[in-house]
Write a structure and sequence with these properties.
single chain, globular, mainly alpha
């Protein structure tokens, strides 16, 4: 690399951000790629402080790090703050980046609320604050991608409310999901509606949405996780175990999936009286908690 040419460092940073994202989404530790990517992007910004793309990419890299840390029970506060700050810098450097910057800042609010709930905060208050902050990012003319993040916030709020014994309908998630729909129903919409159906104990609706999602996005780990969760609700642990194994084949060492697998094994052990299944359940739950000690209160997905 030319030590005084920002373009080369920027290209390297963008490439490493993509590598880190791929690693994290497939259960591989992205820390090395994140560190190298940050170094390249910071050098790019140092050489061209008026540019916006370096800050924008660095914000996206901070998002990868924040999600990875949260999924592993670690404090993501610094990465969340960095994600917000770099997104704001990109917007200040180029007003045309307002929507992308807003999306990153809304995503930061989602992660912050999830971390707060995992630490014991009230899900109604934490996710309400996140949704309100995201609404402010949207301004008078909301963009669909920002509305979609708000829909995620409300859907995960519904899941957290159900987990804590509160009424998931207080999240008003369905209104936001409908508002964020584009011209066609997307896989993401099916997933959000499926998660909401699970929170509200609507098994038949969740099953129909899970089947549609698997047809649309068979390589998306969340498709299989939704199917496994639905099988647990419908008391079909064998189908759930098949689905969660598919999820883990696409995303290794996933604490949330391993904890769900343990629940399914416990359910099947109760039906079959098989002590080996009970041992597997204990082993899988231990693996999940080794990855993320707060796995029971992680609603990032």
């Amino acid at each position: 690399l030319d030590p005084v040419a920002p373009e080369g460092f920027l290209r390297m940073g963008i490439s490493l951000m993509s590598v880190a994202f791929y690693e994290a989404e497939h259960g591989q530790d992205p820390s090395g790629s994140i560190a190298q990517g940050k170094k390249a992007l910071l050098r790019s910004i140092e050489l061209r402080p008026e540019g916006f793309l370096g800050s924008l990419t660095l914000s996206r890299l901070e998002r990868v790090q924040a999600r990875w840390l949260l999924a592993h029970g670690q404090d993501a506060s610094a990465a969340i703050a960095g994600q917000e700050a770099r997104a704001q810098q990109a917007r200040e450097a180029n007003a045309e980046m307002a929507v992308v910057s807003g999306w990153l800042r809304c995503q930061a609010q989602l992660t912050r609320a999830t971390q707060a709930v995992a630490a014991g905060a009230d899900p109604l208050a934490a996710f309400d604050a996140a949704a309100e902050a995201c609404r402010k990012e949207q301004g008078a003319r909301p963009a669909p991608i920002l509305q979609r993040v708000e829909a995620w916030i409300r859907t995960l709020q519904a899941a957290a409310l159900a987990q804590s014994g509160q009424d998931p309908r207080a999240a008003r998630a369905e209104v936001l999901i409908a508002a964020s729909d584009g011209p066609a129903v997307t896989a993401e919409t099916h997933y959000l509606r499926g998660r909401l159906a699970l929170a509200e104990q609507r098994g038949a609706a969740a099953l129909a949405l899970a089947k549609s999602l698997l047809q649309e996005s068979p390589r998306w780990p969340l498709s299989h996780l939704l199917s496994a969760r639905t099988s647990l609700l419908l008391d079909d642990p064998r189908a759930g175990l098949a689905a969660v194994d598919e999820a883990l084949s696409l995303h290794a060492d996933w604490a949330e999936a391993l904890a769900l697998k343990a629940s399914l094994e416990e359910r099947l052990a109760a039906k079959t009286k098989d002590p080996l299944l009970q041992q597997r359940a204990a082993s899988d739950l231990a693996k999940a908690k080794a990855i993320n000690p707060r796995v029971d209160w992680t609603f990032l997905e």
